[in-house]
Amino acid sequence: MPVDSDGERVSGVVFDVPRRRVTAGRWSVRAAWIRRSRPAENIDSALVAVRSGVHLLITVDNDRAETPWVELWANEPDASDGLAVVRQGDDLVGIAHIPMCGCGDRGCGNAGLQLATDVRASDLPNLVDLLRALPNVPGPPSRDATWRGDFNEGEPAI
Ligand SMILES: [Zn+2]
Q1: How far apart are the C-alpha atoms of 148 and 20, rounded to whole Å?
Q2: How far is the CA of 76 from the centre of ligand 1 (A)?
Q3: H-type helices in 37-154, by residue range?
Q4: Is residue 17 part of a domain?
Q5: Is residue 2 domain-resident?
Q6: Ligand 1: distance of its center to the CA of 14 in Å?
Q7: Quick check: is 90 in a domain?
Q8: Residue 106 CA to ligand 1 centre (angstroms)
Q9: What distance in Å separates the CA atoms of residue 105 and residue 115, rounded to the nearest whole number?
Q10: What is the number of domains present in the chain?
Q11: Which domain holds residue 97?
Q12: pTM for the full predicted model
């Protein structure tokens, strides 16, 4: 089970619908919205405004709350551009828009570029802090200069 920096056990991501907050251990952030699926599907999602023009979609399959799926979008998922985290050498340097693919399928352009990955719930606070601090950089991003969202002991693995 993941443990946060205070040594507290983090059992996973929790969506607090009445307070409209996403929590993981002692960490908590306000959500723009939270959507619960029908019980049979058992999948919930929340959109967090990291900063203006940068939104993190957090999706939890309730059987796997310790490893939420995250996707980075400019605004609303699927209706706005996907975003990539751009690295340069050993540094993360910014966030770039991914243009719509010529075929008209947004997922096609995002594939392999958009920040879209499983993260440990205990790494979610670090991910949001990191994304908040990154400036916008010109796109389109190149495939071999995007960060895949990996963490190693709380630090981004680049
Ligand atoms: Zn395409």
Answers
A1: 28
A2: 20
A3: 106-110, 124-133
A4: yes
A5: no
A6: 35
A7: yes
A8: 7
A9: 17
A10: 1
A11: 13-149
A12: 0.90
